[in-house]
Specification:
There is one protein chain. The protein has a two-stranded antiparallel ribbon. The chain has about 240 residues and is mostly helical. Helix content is about 50%, strand content about 0%. The radius of gyration is 41 Å and the shape is elongated. Among the domains are: about 80 residues, no CATH class; about 80 residues, no CATH class. It has 14 helices and 2 strands; from the N terminus they run αααααααααααααββα. This is Cytoplasmic protein. Pfam families: TrcR (PF06242). InterPro entries: TrcR.
Length: about 240
Amino acid sequence: MSDILMPKATAVWLVDNTSLSFEQIADFCNLHPLEVRGIADGEVARDIRGADPIGNGQLTREELDRAQANDAYRMKAQVSRHAELLKPQKKAPRYTPVSRRQDRPDAIAWFLRHHPEVTDAQISKLLGTTKSTIEQVRARTHWNAANIKPVDPVTLGLVGQLELDALVKKAAEKKAKDDLKKGILPEDPTLRPASETGVVETHEEDEEADYRKSRAEPKAEDVFGTSTYVADDEDDEDED
């Protein structure tokens, strides 16, 4: 037996288009014979469309004819090129050129300063470094700690901008979810105290004083350059 692409769909096709026994189909598709019987009875995989194993390269016509001529024969599946393409490709460890490896501590320091929400595991995977190196940079116990300065890893050529943006976004979303579970509400940058915005609250007393001042009599300058208030009409009448 071998791994078959879409085993139930393949079993549906074999039930509908061949004279193979339930055991032969079950053995080829890695299914139970009762499950194949259920497919034949219309109780299982009712809405699944059959997939031709010959057309997709998992079975040869000669192999099928040999199995139909002998009920005891068990068909052998071929390795399909489609199956090879669908297999998950494991990423190789990130390789950093020797000339760039000395720049990794600077990139680590940049993450620690500007994006503390990014975990050590994420930094390690992105930069191809180790958690011990990250801890040394954080604790300033690295052998070259005196010369380490935060530098954008994109500028250093260690990662691409899209890859960095995706990582930072993912880390920020995870941190927001964790904070929400802990009951920590996100800070709203649009709501700041008046002391930070420079806006001073106005009191009613100040407004009233400004209003009275605006209604006061204007001053007039005499010929000597001194200022005096203009007398009201009532004062003139008293003098008379």
